[in-house]
Amino acid sequence: MELFTYPFKAMGSPCELRLYVENKIIAEHIANDAIAEVHRLEKKYSRYREDSVTSNINNSAGNKSGIEVDNETALLLNYAQVGYEQSMGLFDITSGILRKAWDFRSNKIPKQKDIDALLPFIGWNKLHWQAPLLHLPLAGMELDFGGYVKEYAADVAANYCRHAGVTGGLVNLGGDICVIGPHPDASPWKVGIRHPRNPTVPMSFVMLSTGGLASSGDYERFMMVDGIRYAHILNPHTGWPVNSLASTSVVAEQCVVAGTSSTIAMLKGEENGSAWLEELGLPYLCMNQNEEITGTLKRVRSIEF
Amino acid sequence: MSKKNNGISPALAALTTAAMALPGISSTVSAAVAANEPKLSLQISRYDEDSIPSGDADPNAGDRDRYEIDVLQVQFLYPVNEKFQITTGFVYDDMSGSSPWFVRPDANGDPLVVMSGATIDDTRYDYRVGAQYFGEKFTISPNIGYSKEKDYTAVFGGVQVDYEFPNKATSISGGVSVSFDEIDPTQEAGVVRVNNEDKENYTFFGTINQVINKHTIIQSTIGVSIFDGFLSDPYKQVFLPTGNLPDSRPDDRIQYTWSTRLRRYSELFAAAFHVDYRFYYDDWNVRSHTLDLGLHKVTESGWAFDTSIRYYTQTQADFYEPFYTQVRADGEYSSDYRLSPYGSIALRLGLSETIGDWTVKLGAERYISDKSYSIQSVDVENPALLDYTLFTFGMDYSF
Amino acid sequence: MKSLLRGLVVITLCLFVFSCSSVNPWERGILAKPEMAWEPDPLVGQLQEHVYFSKEGSSGGYGAGGGGCGCN
Questions:
Q1: Chain C residue nearest residue A170, CA to CA
Q2: ipTM rounded to 2 decimals
Q3: Which of A12, A17, A194, B179 could form a disulfide with A6, with the two C-beta atoms 3.0–4.6 Å apart?
Q4: Does B289 touch chain C (CB under 8 A)?
Q5: C49, C58, C71: best to mutate for the B interface, most B CBs within 10 A
Q6: Which residue, among B144, B139, B161, B28, has the nearest Cα to B84 in the 3D structure?
Q7: pLDDT, tens digit, for every residue of A83-106?
Q8: For the structural domain made of A2-40+150-300, what CATH number should be given?
Q9: Mean pLDDT value of segment A165-186
Q10: Which of the four CATH numbers 2.170.270.10, 2.60.120.280, 3.80.10.10, 2.40.160.40 does domain B34-398 have?
Q11: Which one, of A229, A253, A250, A252, lies nearest residue A241 by Cα?
Q12: d(CA A212, nearest CA chain B) in Å
């Protein structure tokens, strides 16, 4: 068994595939196919592509007959619905439209009336979803799968590799990680978690031999206005950023569940977020605005990766 | 994964359930899924039986050269969608040679085989169509087929249902197959043969597959097969001092089998060990044991190599004799070596290489039978026991 | 004979006992390797099965078979 590493770019992030495989030919074959799966999902759910499922759905908004979606999309919509229900409406894939008001590169806080103008278009409960038929009743409504497709893609790529017979390896899509399996000696992977205030130094390491790890933070898109940090963690009810934790990392059996849980925890804020993760029983790690780390996820102090 | 002692939280359970439903997450490796690509497989083979040794054959009758068969097999697998696939197969056999006719004692009372006079030339065409439907809980696989020779026609079909338990570690299968065969022997001047006869076969089986650990899987099958109709060989006779009689067997036969197969992967050898065992018993009192040990390895450069040894041993049918010295009250006679007590050993080698969409395969088998391989003590060995060599050359192409 | 068969049935059913061993999905990769297949090469398997079926006194065992032949 030899370790092969394949860096690539997808979903706007640096990504990496690590595989323990007998030889290079097999490794390349598997890596190519797994990476192709990630690119397939990126293409399929990209907001920027005219021919993507997301664009087709969004173009159908206001259309009386609705739109029929494929099986994979249907199951992703079902997942979004569960996330919406379990988070009391905080995890909402209709809230992406808020980016029209919040331009984090402008360093300007939007006017309340601009936010108010968008709120009628937000709300998963306004959709009519009866698989395979999806109906966005208001022209202008938008779905954004960006909140969980990357994590889902990590699961898919990892699962693909397992199918291909890989028993040890790791999929890393811009920090969202899904373990294919532990090292050949059954030891876990040492995975670094990004420091929300210093991208070059990991805030800690965790050991992972199975499952997925996903992080959300206020560092991905934000602006500082008058000394106050406004991050892209937007509450779909108010349209305003949540004054919350700096970052949350969660480990779950599936990367997509880890990602949704960390997103919801961020949206719930510092106190409620941790409490919610405790309730889920998932190992987690949070850093608050004072750079204090809390959580149940066991950390390893080491700089070697 | 750390979970609360009081179980999983409802929110996590809901999210996990929704995530597990997602394609690409839901499918586990043990679950049956349709193949991704259409695949065409071709194989040509030469099956060559050793001639009867001169000391064992009647020097005045027949040709000692036994069967030689050239075989062409074609199989096409077509996945219609992710839940449904179709397999069609075709086999063409071109046979020639002589076959054992009957066994008579020589002056010392030792058996001599008398071969059929003329060389037999025949062809066999076999067509099959099967489908597999991978449902939510069950996989259903029906199939039908038709086989035609100059003197023999068979129509057969069956269905198998597989169910995987939610733990994904256990699956069970059950199935039934039927065959309706008709034999219309080639007539020969001066030889009394039946004219037109038929037989039916019904087979039932149940299988359990179990994942033992991450290196080991085991499968066990129990089967019953019922034959009804003309089960004799119209081209064979038996020797009696008062004159030869046609091969004449009971008109029903019930066979029971219990088979277990084990696959274990060895990290040390980077290869899979195969152990197959079958116990067989029928109401003609034939009992047999088959043990097949194999090693399958896929090497670093994409070559695949396999080797196996098969040991087979059977007891004789109640009514079998190499030749008869007196008339039997039940009128049942057969001197067919296939109903005699014997054992056999087969050695196999296979080699293949996959380059891109192509796989090229070579295989060889050597099979030898002997009375000394039998678990039964054998007084008189049937002189027509079979030895053969089989060579195969195959190619697969995935579209 | 009957008792032997009954014994075999019991052994088969005992396989269920192994069900307690849980192998996680990410540990199943090895079991999915082609060399671990019950029948690694279907055409070779089909041919051998046919030869043994027509040249030996016993047959069957691994599921459903095809039709007979006039092989002698």
A1: C26
A2: 0.88
A3: A17
A4: no
A5: C58
A6: B139
A7: 999 999 999 999 999 989 998 888
A8: 3.10.520.10
A9: 91
A10: 2.40.160.40
A11: A229
A12: 11
